[in-house]
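Please, structure for the following, as tokens.
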Amino acid sequence: MNNKRIALLLGAGTSVAVKMPSTEDITERILSSSGVFHHSSDCYYIDDNKKGWSDWEREPVECIVRFLNWLREVAQLSLRRKSKPNYEDLYLVASQLNSHLSGVLVNFALQPFVDCVLSKLPEFAIKKDSKILGERQLWYLTHETKNYIHDVTSCMLRKPLPTLVPLDALLSVCCDEAFDSVDIFTLNHDRVLECWFDQRRQDSDQKKRHYEDGFSEKTNNLRYWAPERYENSTLKVRLYKLHGSVNWYQYDSENEGLTRTKVAIPVDGSISASRDASGHLMIPSPRPMILLGTFNKMFEYRGLVFDELHCRFSKTLKQVSQLIICGYGFRDRGINYQLSRWIHTGSGRKVILIHHDPDKLQQKAEKDIAEDWKTLKNEKMWGYIRKRVENTTYDDIRNQLEK
């Protein structure tokens, strides 16, 4: 292990510190549908100032919201926690139903629930003039429900940032000369970290990025996924977005009769067709690449860029002895498995957790990692900074690193 290399694992709590929407905020908007409308592109957008909605713009939204509120009541009965299902839980249920109905991931135990939903379908059906109110219509409803949650979440996470100062202490580790290499793994879809680094670059009058994000230099307004840059880069900081980003898109092109898919970032934010270096037309997907849900994410960790990202997460953990965790609720089983394996398969490893109430966090964590937590706390492999990230100083972090 390299003691001059350190890793950070960041969750939604770090973004909430800079006034980004919380899980509760996103859930409330999705269930209320305030300002949400169905666009002619078949995407869902938010416009809080618009008035006089047409039936075509609002009817699909209202059908989905009725379905989601009913689904939430049903899901609450099976959840083994006091809090109500959030938008990630609801996305999981819609995804499971959709996968079962499409035959992608058939689960025979789900069929009684499918029959139950079918009996309620006339209340939720989007295309009421359809002659078939059966499984095909339910597939369409769950498909649109997934799109609706995805789109509303993406819209909310694109909001302008009022301030980035609350993250200064946490991200000061990137400037600490005690470390030659800093690997940041984030589960957040927003661009908070990129904006923090861009602001630092502007403050220092430098033109080049301060971090490596695994994407190429610009080609016709697109930066393409190029994971080899993580190894080849001389930059100290590497950023890995394990659940995708609101500015990552799939682009399809046809070349010699074959459809090729690439992942890219549109540099100017414009989601439009472009051309690659060979002149082939690149058509973007309408939705950004972000992973939503809970347990279903583990199946998607194998797709496109995500298998590469999670492989690098596993590989990096083996090379570090200290891991700073902030804003993570320990409810992602795939991530928890990696953490547990890292802690149990090496010596001299330590987690530094930034949280104002770690005991409460432990109670809400997934059962397996919570059990590990008790054992490792006794072995002093956990170091606590009992503060919110916005109240944490870098001295607090350094004191834990030096223990």
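The first strand starts at residue 5 and ends at 10. The chain has a mean pLDDT of 89.
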